[in-house]
Design brief:
This protein has 14 helices and two strands; from the N terminus they run αααββααααααααααα. It is mainly α and 298 residues long.
């Protein structure tokens, strides 16, 4: 009964929040686009769908010219760098979800483990782990990611590794602060008095009561991670040439930035996709904060 009441409260709060509904609508839209990518932008049979092939004319001939081609009935979003912008935007949605979810989940797990151990045990363990965290936080995120991708090589998988390595610290700090407050609560002290193992106290008692701010942060970070990955691709150290990624499309348009009358479509369509994707996650994150934060419930 309590679960049903809580579900009704959450649903009622979502429906009454127009910005939350907008975020959910945009997120559902991108999910549908990602799922229907093989239908909306069919790939060559037997080929990796994320590797874009040169676009074809209405007659079926390959387009080898790197000059921008304005949108037409065959290519509704135009052609840039001999690649179809429509295909890149559609499959780039899958790339965005892939890198955002993988980096957010793995880096958050690392941060939760580090922050939980640091806060719960304290002392020299806390000191060592937090100094390591400070060392990583002292390095500018984008610069560190660029250095890592330069060392590891180009490719979205290398970008993912770089973002994970330098993306766990904020979660570690956040969960540490929450557990430092919660570990002095009566239910935690009672669990210790009963002789429950530290591992189960952290997993069963502390994390369920401190994890909600991390969930909000994960949703808010999804958009920024996609922007960072697109920035690396735009600078030429991210996704490989021809990979279906929004930043790669913008990279192709870089040589025509002063001639937007010829290449506006290569900037506008991937740019709009990124803006709406980030907006969707930010609005959903704000909605989750309003729902889970006890201070906001009043």
């Amino acid at each position: 009964m309590a679960m049903k009441t809580e579900s009704r409260r959450i649903l009622k709060k979502l429906v009454k929040n127009p910005t939350a509904m907008l975020g959910i609508f945009l997120l559902v839209f991108f999910i549908i686009v990602a799922i229907l990518a093989p239908v909306l932008a069919p790939s060559e049979p037997g080929k990796d769908p994320f590797k874009m092939l040169p676009a074809k004319t209405a007659e079926g001939k390959m387009i080898w010219s790197s000059n921008p081609i304005a949108p037409d009935s065959t290519h509704p979003f135009g052609v840039i760098g001999k690649y179809d912008v429509w295909y890149g935007v559609i499959w780039g949605t899958r790339s965005a979800f892939k890198i955002g979810l993988i980096v957010s989940i793995i880096s958050s797990i690392i941060g939760i483990i580090v922050g939980s151990i640091s806060a719960y045990f304290g002392g020299w363990i806390d000191e060592i782990l937090m100094r390591i965290t400070d060392m990583f936080m002292a390095i500018p995120f984008l610069v560190a990611a660029m250095i890592m991708t330069t060392i590891l090589g180009k490719g979205l998988d290398k970008v993912t590794i770089a973002l994970i390595i330098f993306g766990w610290m904020q979660v570690a700090r956040l969960i540490r602060g929450n557990i430092l407050q919660a570990k002095e609560e009566q239910y935690v002290l009672a669990a210790k008095a009963l002789g429950i193992r530290n591992f189960w106290i952290i997993v069963k008692h502390l994390l369920p009561n401190t994890i909600f701010p991390v969930i909000v942060q994960i949703s808010m970070r999804m958009g920024s991670l996609v922007i960072t990955a697109a920035s690396l691709s735009f600078l030429g150290v991210g996704a490989e040439i021809g990979y279906a990624d929004w930043g790669t499309l913008l990279n192709y348009a870089r040589n025509y930035m002063m001639q937007l009358d010829k290449s506006w479509f290569a900037v506008v369509y991937p740019g709009i996709a990124m803006v709406l994707f980030v907006l969707a996650w930010n609005l959903v994150g704000d909605a989750l904060r309003d729902i889970f934060d006890p201070k906001m419930r009043a």
